[in-house]
Amino acid sequence: MPELLSQDTIENRLAELEDWHYRDSAVHKTWKLKGFLTAMSFANAIAHLANEADHHPDLSVHDYNRLTVRITTHSAGGVTENDLSMAERIERLRHGG
Ligand SMILES: C[C@H](O)[C@H](O)[C@H]1CNC2=NC(N)=NC(=O)C2=N1
């Protein structure tokens, strides 16, 4: 089972990523996209990535054009390397990496 990371470790890693925050035992970010379908498409792209990695974030398309992603490791009850790694992969996806 992946181990829980300390708040310091989590915050140091998130400092390398734009607009990601640590709260309530999870890392999360909200994007404002061009429109509803853009937000849905981005959510779907993340869903494919997540399924491949077998690590599944909470995804919420809300307020017309916003997507909120919340990532935690359910089996560990908090943030592990798997969550930070997924956040980094989502950023690369978003920036076409
Ligand atoms: C069997 C399978 O690997 C587990 O159920 C995985 C699936 N996806 C998961 N996703 C997340 N976010 N946390 C988990 O603990 C988790 N466990």
Structure description:
The structure is a single chain. The chain has a 4-stranded antiparallel beta sheet. It has one domain: Transcriptional coactivator/pterin dehydratase (Gyrase A, domain 2, 2-Layer Sandwich), CATH 3.30.1360. Strand 1 (21-23) and strand 2 (26-32) form a beta hairpin. Helix 2 crosses helix 3. The model has no long low-confidence stretch (mean pLDDT 97). It contains 3 helices and 4 strands. It has 97 residues and is of the alpha+beta class. Bound molecules: the ligand C[C@H](O)[C@H](O)[C@H]1CNC2=NC(N)=NC(=O)C2=N1. The ligand C[C@H](O)[C@H](O)[C@H]1CNC2=NC(N)=NC(=O)C2=N1 binds at residues 54-56, 73-75. InterPro entries: PCD_sf, Pterin_deHydtase.
Ordered list of secondary-structure elements with their pairings:
Layout: H1 7-14, E1 21-23, E2 26-32, H2 36-53, E3 58-62, E4 66-71, H3 81-94
Antiparallel strand pairs: 1-2, 2-4, 3-4
Helix pairs in contact: 2-3
The chain binds the ligand C[C@H](O)[C@H](O)[C@H]1CNC2=NC(N)=NC(=O)C2=N1.
Question: Gist?
Answer:
With 97 residues, the protein is α+β, with helices and mostly antiparallel strands. The protein contains 3 helices and 4 strands, in the order H-E-E-H-E-E-H. Residues 54-56, 73-75 line the site of ligand H2B.
